[in-house]
Structures are given as C-alpha cells and as structure tokens.
Amino acid sequence: MDPKSQRVKLNDGHFIPVLGFGTYAPPEVAKKEALEFTPFAIEVGFRHIDCAHAYQNEEEIGQVIRSKIADGTVKREDIFCTSKLWLTSLRPELVRPALEKSLKNLQLDYVDLYIMHYPMALKPGEELFPKDENGKLIFDSVDFCRTWEALEKCKDAGLAKSIGVSNFNHKQLERILNKPGLKYKPVCNQVECHPYLNQSKLLDFCKSHEIVLVAYAGLGSQRVKEWVNQNHPVLLEDPVLSAIAQKHKKTAALVALRYQIQRGVVVLAKGNNKKWIKENMQVFDFELTPEDMKAIDGLNRNIRYYELHL
Predict the structure, then answer these.
(1) Is 170 annotated to bind ligand?
(2) Cβ(215)–Cβ(304) under 8 Å?
(3) For site (Lowers pKa of active site Tyr), what residue positions does UniProt give (predicted)?
(4) What are phi and psi of 214, to 5 degrees?
(5) How far lies 220's CA from each of 114, 269, 301, in Å?
(6) 55 is catalytic
(7) Please, which residues have CB within 8 angstroms of residue 18's CB and are 6 or more apart in sequence?
(8) N or C: which end of the chain has fewer CB within 10 A?
(9) For the chain, first and last CA: distance in Å?
C-alpha cells in the first residue's frame, strides 16, 4: 500500500497524511537529530513533517526539505509541513510575523498547516518561557479568539493552507466554533493521545465538528525530563499491546500507531533511530480486528506523559 496516498480530508478541502514524522527532541540534540533523521524519514516515505517554532530546529528542517526537493526525492507539493505558533506570539499583531519567521527558517513560501500550540499566552519576547525573578512564568492576557482571527488572515494571505489548534479541550474548541463572525473552523486539534490516554470523548466531539484529531506521543513518550512524568508505566511494554503485536507479527509500536489510524486519528511518530523510523511505515501493511481495537480501547487509564505545567 502506498503510504503517500494514505490521507484524510480536512474541513477546508485540503488533505493531511495520516502518518506524520514528529521533529521534537530535547533542545541539546534538536538541531543534530533534525539533520540526521528527517532526511531518512523522507527517504523511507514520510511526507507529513510536524514542526514548531518552539522545537528550535526549523532552520535545520528547512535545509533538509530543500535538499530533498533539490535531489529529486520529493516535490514541494508532496510534503505536508506543519508549524506551530508559540505562546509568546498570541497577540494578534504578532501572529503573522511569527509565521513569517517560521517560513523563513523553513525556506518555504507557505506551510500546509499552522496551529496554535497552546490556548494560553506568555509575555512576548525572544525567550520561550519568560520568567520573573522568582522563576514563575509571566503570562500575557490575550483572548485566543482574537489570535484565531489573525490565523484566519494568514490563511487568506496564502501563508498557511490550513489552520488549526493544539492542546485545546472541548470547551476551548467551542469558544472558537461559537465565535461570532468565524470564517474558518480549526481543521485539527493536536493533543497527546495513545492507548493509555485515548481521548475518546474529545475525539467524538472533534468528529462531530469535522475537526481531525492529531495524536502526539502516540507511542507514550521519549521521557524527556522537563516535559514528562517519569513515574508512569511504559506504554510499549503493555502486555495487551504486546500480545496483539505478537499475533500480527508486528511491534507494539506499530500496533499503537495502527490503532489511531483505524479510529480516524492522524498520528505522529517521532524517531531518533533509523530502524524504528523505517519500521513505522509498516503501519499500512496490516489491520487490527474489531476485537483488537476493543482490547486496546480497554487500556485507557487517563495517563498523561506530557505535563507541561503552564
């Protein structure tokens, strides 16, 4: 099966590949890993590349995309590139400059998807996490509905083909959906989602409004100490996942990814190991049974690996 054809339609008519390559890595290795693993991901068939200003490696990703276009591996239109608006740029007048900065770093004329990284604002400036003298984050008071209007203008200007959100709950989504004068609905909501946090209620809500749920941490997590609760059980060691994997002669990781795709979720797979990156493409080679799906549904225990306390 051709992975490049595995796409779902967004509510604005564009299409998003169901399997994406996540580019977040700890800051000290983010640039190095972007240069090492993103070209390989594109070579083995990944076409959806998930980036963000906050990952501090968009320049490197831009170099990789350029070189893969230059060597004939892909055309620009083959690549679905996402970037994200960081919390320090939620004031409406800062939105377009932030997107333009990401575009410059990525060496692109447009991104396929631009999303609001979190539904909350921090004090504008160069620092990703501005803090006061007591080490407390300095918040900014911005109505994210105004931020959304600025994102709509970016779509109209052709700088982003589609616009969406991330880390929103259903009430926050409703605030945008019910906003007077709404021009475009968010096409997606990117959230932590995996068998231990299956987000079934949020998924149902999103589906009812034609919003695609995009899953990050689909394999649990890389356990980055700043972001991740270290005390949780390791998802990929779960006995139920392991048994299903054995039955299909696949890995637990592939089962976790396939689970999302079969429930209509777009899933991101990160990779800092070439063997795993290549293996993730096998997600299109098998199908889980309804019994498998039900068993995996039963693993939900509302465990969040990513606890960015804002």
Answers:
(1) no
(2) no
(3) 84
(4) -110, 125
(5) 24, 10, 13
(6) yes
(7) 6, 7, 8, 261, 266, 267
(8) N
(9) 42
**310 pLDDT exceeds 50?**
no
pLDDT in tens, 43-98: 999 999 999 999 999 999 999 999 999 999 999 999 999 999 999 999 999 999 99
Choose, from 24, 55, 114, 196, the residue flagged as catalytic: 55
Q: Which two tokens stand for residue 135?
A: 């080490």
Report DSSP letters for the chain, one per residue: --GGG-EEE-TTS-EEESEEEE----HHHHHHHHHHHHHHHHHHT--EEE--GGGT-HHHHHHHHHHHHHTTS--GGG-EEEEEE-GGG-SHHHHHHHHHHHHHHHT-S-EEEEEES-SSEE--SS-SS-B-TTS-B-EE---HHHHHHHHHHHHHTTSEEEEEEES--HHHHHHHHT-TT--S--SEEEEE-BTTB--HHHHHHHHHTT-EEEEESTT-----TTTB-TTSPPGGG-HHHHHHHHHHTS-HHHHHHHHHHHTT-EEEEE-SSHHHHHHHGGGGS----HHHHHHHHTT-----SB----
pLDDT, one tens digit per residue, over 133-184 is 999 999 999 999 999 999 999 999 999 999 999 999 999 999 999 999 999 9
298, 195 contact by CB (below 8 A): no
Give me 11's structure tokens.
Answer: 């509510």
pTM check: above 0.90: yes
Sign of CA dihedral 53, 54, 55, 56: positive
Average pLDDT over residues 10-37: 96
CA dihedral over 186, 27, 23, 95, signed as positive or negative: positive
